[in-house]
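WP5 quarterly update. Target: Mop domain-containing protein. Source organism: Streptomyces afghaniensis 772. Length: 44 aa.
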Amino acid sequence: MEIQAGPHRLVSLLTREAVEELGLEVGMEATARVKSTNVHIDRT
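Structure tokens (predicted):
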């Protein structure tokens, strides 16, 4: 998963199962919440 946040790029690994469960597709908007070493991805 790669998220562009202004001039910054956030990269995180997701399982195929998580991508399918969230219904994520290339170009879809998503929100990333970062806490310490954890990244939570939500569809927006």
